[in-house]
């Protein structure tokens, strides 16, 4: 239909028919009235012809190969196993207690019947472990978290913080689930501030034991996965107290981890001195049995100290290769960074599922249309494209960024390279915070984009949203993690002016800061051709310029405020600025990885699709923060308009291949399993579910 002016064809008859007026307005929404264009810029004229642009042909099979990880075979094994076992599939309606028991049966069946044993890969091949975790979480997010508690957290502390004697004693039991365990770090009064935990482990040199105590209610271990029902052991984080001969009586050696049995291996009865309570029904993840633990003079052998970074001899003498409490604490938490890596990676998987359901529904669903013509797909409406197409582009960007994180983490575990350790720590903190926050917001957008049908539990958005929500909190609160990223950036900023070596992730700062400290180029600020705006160099330079500007300005502010408020007060005064800086940096890293993967994609068709996705991701982000670029004249007004128009055009182009793009996620029907997302028998399955 050719666009018409809203008032040009209006008649008195139209005025008396609200329905006709509404259809006319919606048709204009679908094909907007073109605004007068400057004839000196033909590339802008082309943007109004989006509906007539040729659709990019995508070879979905080649794109799947480009997207597929190295360990797709084991993922397919997981999917096939659960698809063949209906009794192990989680129903839409299930009670908390039944869900917990089902979750345990699912995990036991995966390990003992399907023969998939994730624990061996935690240290040997982390990339394969995370691939299994992604697949398992797609089956049921509660199952993914329960598996993570058993192998990443409880098992991970034994592997990463213990020594040979601990691995020899506990490895097989953890691997085959005879020793289900917990990770007891968080307390009622302390979550993010782990150094502030109050549980104590006091060494008794007479009996050669540690005594684990909960000194007050605030020190009760809280939200401990596997504790309420299934756990038999816990890796308990507590302050190690050694007796001294001075007036203090004890010396605090800092936070250490201890293996504490909590239930009898044969009878499953709670052991003496231990209280276990159920944290009850949660917003989501009710297949995970979170509990609370209190210890009352619980004695454990000295050997139960996980002593990789600090040990206590029979005579009570403490030894460590690390000279201070802070260094030991940093080393301890550094070994547990894999949890953040897994959450970032798994969050992208959740986003893929939600985007697939919402986009397939939007392609199938038809509402309104031009007068006397068939209804159109709701994904043809610009508003629906605005909701879902930048999200789809972001999903691709996050996929490659988190895949890079997993690969870097795997390399770090093998090489133990100190520079990689620092790089992974900051990158995992930033990506976990940024990706999980974005996914949480996107889940609500996907639900809304599917209208009333999105509210049906069978169509999955409710469970996905509720189960994923806590990803923003555990393994590090997102706001706290972004502050860690900002602190690292400021540290690197100081190194730049001292002439030191920058960590790999921050290499771009050296050149970018030099560019920032000079004035924006008034000529390039006005360039607005499509070729220029789609040039990855322009896009990446813009992202990095923004990060450098934020970094330099917050450094100046912190220096100013610290003189009157002190370092803590200055940090708090600039906190929102610091969070914006961290997010900007992570966006730069994500875009850089996406550009790299576009260039390295061997198939021309897939490369063209990824380039389109990359351009939309970059220009949408630039437009969303256009005020920053305009304030410093990095982008002139006419260029800002061109960016907006091109982003809208690219969004339409992505819409044309949206079905191919979500198909390339290669998610089996069992994973998406929402009736409104089924390609053929959507409504027949949906109506059957409600009883027709």
Describe what this molecule looks like in 3D.
The chain has helices at residues 12-15, 18-30, 42-45, 60-67, 72-83, 96-112, 119-124, 126-139, 141-161, 164-175, 325-334, 338-364, 382-415, 418-449, 461-468, 478-498, 508-517, 530-533, 536-573, 575-600, 604-624, 626-631, 637-656, 658-663, 669-672, 682-689; strands at residues 181-184, 200-204, 209-213, 221-224, 233-243, 250-261, 274-278, 291-295, 298-301, 311-312, 318-319. By secondary structure, it is of the alpha+beta class. Strands 1, 2, 3, 5, 6 and 9 form a six-stranded mixed sheet that branches. The protein has a three-stranded antiparallel sheet with strand order 4-8-7, with no helix packed on it. The chain has a two-stranded antiparallel sheet with strand order 10-11. A hairpin with a 5-residue loop joins strand 10 and strand 11 (318-319). The protein starts with 11 loop residues before the first helix and ends with a helix.
For the structure shown, list the relevant keywords.
9% strand; six-stranded mixed sheet; three-stranded antiparallel sheet; 56% helix; 26 helices; 692 residues
Quote the distance from N terminus to C terminus.
Answer: 38 Å
Largest sheet: 6 strands, mixed
Question: How many strand segments?
Answer: 11
> Helical region count?
26
Briefly note the structural class of the backbone. Answer: alpha+beta
**Strand percentage:** 5-15%
Rg over C-alpha atoms, rounded to the nearest angstrom: 28 Å
Molecular shape: globular
Helix content: 55-70%
Low-confidence stretches: 1-16, 25-52
In round numbers, the mean pLDDT is: 88
- What quaternary form is this? single chain
